[in-house]
Amino acid sequence: MSVMEGSSAATDAARNNESLVRQAGIGNLLLASLNPDDFALLAPHLQRVQLELNSVIAQAGAPIDTLFFPEAGVIGFADVLKDGQRLAVALTGRDGFVGWPLVLGNDRWPHQAIVRAERGTALRIRAADLVPILAGNERIRTTLLRYASSLVAQMARTIVSNLIHPVECRTARWLLLYHDRVQGDEIAITHEELGVMLGVRRSSITDALHQLEGAGAVRGYRGRVLVRDRARLEALAGETYGFAEAEYRRLLAPTAALA
Questions:
Q1: Share of the chain above pLDDT 90, in %
Q2: Cα Rg of the chain (Å, integer)
Q3: The pLDDT of residue 254
Q4: Any alpha helices (H) in the chain, and if so which ranges?
Q5: Among the four 65, 82, 90, 228, which has the fewest Cβ within 10 Å?
Q6: Residue % of the chain over a pLDDT of 70
Q7: Cα 189 from Cα 220, distance rounded (Å)
Q8: Which among 64, 58, 68 has a CA at the least distance from the CA of 27?
């Protein structure tokens, strides 16, 4: 190898090293919790990308080619009906990842995934790079499977809440799910979006928010909701909130709990 070739190779190596995602200070709780040796297997394949508000990062029925580990921002999963209606089934953020069906053996997206509440960043990895790593590393595979199990618990509680709980309790629950994942106490969300998530009319959401405001739990503004008293909001949510969150902590300890 010539001196020039050696210099070029060293430069390329330095650039690759600079672009490598470091585990220290990483925003995603799952990746941050991994053993450093396990994270090192993923690092060369991770790329930090922007999550723009209201952008769709997965379409129901499409192949799962790319997975995302959010560092900030909220990702909503929604069932899309034939008439175009979307019904929210779950949320994730820096506590989890988008692409969990892949680790359960499904190579297609069952839901639409859309960025909600605020823009953020995520670490992106190709399915083609992740699958062989999961096949050879039980610790990483177990972490992702445990998260998938906690998300199934969240979805199950969504079903139960939709069946038996009043709209004001369900509204309180969804606001708590958002509040867990946004930075600060302000949630960018409209009455229309909440109506879509809960499968109810906008007037029902307006009435529910008035009840939550009257209790001093939140303050509604145009296109946003401010959480004023989280403890009060949790009390108003009642049984709709807490079970799935406890499952997350149980399954993923010592991973940090939701903020």
A1: 51
A2: 20
A3: 54
A4: 3-19, 29-33, 36-42, 100-103, 127-136, 138-164, 167-181, 191-198, 202-214, 230-237, 243-252
A5: 82
A6: 90
A7: 10
A8: 68
Asked if residue 16 has pLDDT above 70, the reply is no
- Which residue in the block uniquely carries the two structure tokens 């906008």? 202
181 in Cβ contact with 95 (< 8 Å): yes
Instruction: Name the residue with tokens 């949630």.
Output: 187
| Residues near 51 by beta carbon (within 8 Å), at least 6 away in sequence | 57, 68, 70, 72, 73, 75, 115, 119, 120, 121, 122
CA geometry: angle at 120 spanning 109 and 190, to 5°?
Answer: 80
Tokens for 63? 């192949």
Report whether 95 contacts 248 (CB < 8 A): yes
Peptide bond into 110 cis (omega under 30): no
pLDDT digits (tens, 9 = 90+) for 28-44: 999 999 999 999 999 99
Token pair 């499977």 in the structure block, residue:
145
- Token digits for 42? 């993923």
How far is Cα 208 from Cα 85, in angstroms, rounded to an integer?
A: 21
DSSP per-residue codes, 78-98? EEE-TTS-EEEEEEESTTS-B
pTM of the predicted model, to two decimals?
A: 0.85
Both tokens assigned to 86: 């979307």
Which one, of 206, 252, 211, lies nearest residue 235 by Cα? 211
Cα–Cα distance for residue pair 189/77, rounded to 1 Å: 15
Instruction: Among 97-101, 126-130, 191-195, name the one with the lowest average pLDDT.
Output: 191-195
Does the pLDDT value for residue 10 go beyond 70?
A: no
99 sits in the region (left: phi over 0; alpha: psi -120 to 50; else beta) called left
- Are 147 and 244 in contact by the 8 Å Cβ rule? The answer is no
